[in-house]
Write a structure and sequence with these properties.
Number of helices: 17
Number of strands: 20
Radius of gyration: 25 Å
Largest sheet: 9 strands, mixed
Shape: globular
Strand order of the largest sheet: 16-17-15-14-13-12-11-8-18
Low-confidence stretches: 35-67
Helix content: 25-40%
Oligomer: single chain
Amino acid sequence: MICVDLNEKSFEYDVRGLLTSFFPGEQISLTDEPGDGIIAAQGEPGADRPGTGDGGADDEFALDGDLTGKRLTVECSIEEGAVSLEWRSGSCFYSDRGEARPGDRVALKGVLKRCLYELLVRDTGRELPWGTLTGIRPTHLVLQRLEEGQSPEECRRIMREYYLAGEEKTELALEIAQLEYSLLKDLAAGPAARENARPDLNVLRSQGYSLYIGIPFCPSRCLYCSFASQPIDRWQGHLERYIDALFAELDLVKELFAGRKLHTVYIGGGTPASLSETELGRLLDGVCARFDVPALKEFCVEAGRPDTVTPEKFRVLRGHGVSRVSINPQTMNQATLDLIGRRHTVEQVKEAFGMARETGFSNINMDIILGLPGETEADVENTLAQITSLEPDALTVHTLARKRASRLNTERGSWDALPAGDTEAQMELAQAAARGMGMRPYYLYRQKNMTGNLENTGFSKPGLEGLYNILMMEDAEDIAAAGAGTVSKRIFSDGTIVRSDNVKDPALYLERLPEMLERKRGLFS
């Protein structure tokens, strides 16, 4: 248990993020009354507490009778631009303070996070690869600065000195942001935009958009999954109604975005390939009837579960103009596949990949997850060797995240006893394998409770980047989303972002479809 006394609630997210990064799995209890709850301290009442953290008796404190507890006390004054922190961990005590320009909330938050980070480094003896960054999009910070005209050297300085990120992650973020910037410049104004050092990327936000279609059905639920997906067998006989509802949303999207250019379409899930060949064909017929598919920059469909695909389904995809598919083994070790509930074999992964290639797909992505229960570096090496032999065009490397609603978290006692590999070493292996296949990193994002406090990174061969991933993750243009559990996003020219969520449960989605349509109309009108 970590107890936190914090008088400025607006900084709670950032404080929690750093604490959970250093102490994954710890319960955090927060109050807004600094100093409240410290039951007793060793030594004379009112005596000064040593700041050496050397484990002396005077450093000990009692937290609800537990001498091994941890407590953080933070006092912030935004008006005065001051923050002071005290960190007590077992018998160790540390303190720090910092200042920013009075009234500057953003600057003071940065000071607070740096002070807290340095205290936790002193206490634990370890640093985090991303420093104080707890948000999901570190590359977005760099991309914004490149768009403002800042130099790569200035971006490096900010990442290292302001966010305290490590050199390796700094270079990774900069490499990806520079590639993203180049691709977005091309999309905004064509190849001629490369000659302009600072093109207005608001052209994308005002003239283009992307479409996401959600299919929230799967053949089974994986151990780590927290998505709003339903078993496909329970929905047999009702899928036509679901597709009809999607068409109602797509009709509205077509109306609301008339005159704007649709750049990408992404059909995800769930598992879209869990639809039958007839259902999949009907869905794609509806997309092609409403939108100019041949003019798309990218049309991607997740064919993620190898046990759901057939040669005919790939022919249906190819025949409707789908240009990119994703086949996602997560691991090529059969024992792990069985453990995480994938219900397919390694051989089926290879067969699915072969089907896609034989059908003519020249942009095939594969997903893997690092940090799966019981997986060692040798297991990851085996996965990477088998994937390399298939020669995919892109590789997305995920780091396992313990999502609150996943069985991995709710039944964690069943998995915690399994040996855990070194996820950072596994990431190094994956990056080396991707670059060895001629790929480069093109997008990156992070999630809460990620193993090793690392990241998810997409790699691809040049020219085969997943454009939708970049547009969505970097808030480069509006995203119109259709289906249960999807989120539409409107990006305003001043940077404001407004979202509209569809209800997650497919049955409720069908029942409340008129409400979902009105939400979308209200967002984009």
